C-alpha cells in the first residue's frame, strides 16, 4: 500500500508582501470603511424613521414619500457616507487580500451597535454585546497577519 502525499505550494518569504507602508494605508482605509459604512446605514435608518412608515397605496403617496426621501438631510448624509465607504473599500481591495480586508473590517459591527445605541436609541442586549466582543477579538487576530500574501501576476 503506497501513501500519497499532497504537496502544498510553499509561499516563500519573498512572495509575502507586508511592507509597513502597505499595512499603514490598508489600516487607514479599513478604519474609514469601519466608520463610514455603519454611519451611512445608521443615518439612512434615522432618515427613514423620520419619514415614517412607507405604505404606497396610491400614486400620490408614493410621490410624497419620494419627495420626503429626496429632501431628507440624514438620508443624503447617509448616502454620502456610504459612497465614501464604497470608495475606500474599492481602493483597499486593489492592494490587499479580500481574506484580510473582510474580516478586518468586521469591527464595523461594534460601530453599528454603538451608533445604534446612541443615535437611534436602540437597546443592545448583553448577548449582542458579547457577540460584538467576539467579533472584535477575531478582528484583532486577523489584524496581526499581513494584508497581502501573494504577488500579483
Describe the structure.
- Helices cover 68% and strands 0% of the residues.
- With 153 residues, the chain is mainly α.
- α1 (20-51) runs antiparallel to α3 and α1 runs parallel beside α5 (108-119).
Number of helices: 6
When the domains are counted, the total is 1
Count of strand segments: 0
Separation, N- and C-terminal Cα atoms: 40 Å
In summary, what is this structure?
With 153 residues, the chain is an all-alpha fold.
What order do the helices and strands come in, and which of them pair?
Layout: H1 20-51, H2 59-70, H3 73-95, H4 98-104, H5 108-119, H6 126-143
Helix pairs in contact: 1-3, 1-5
Summary tags:
about 150 residues; mainly alpha; 6 helices; about 70% helix; globular
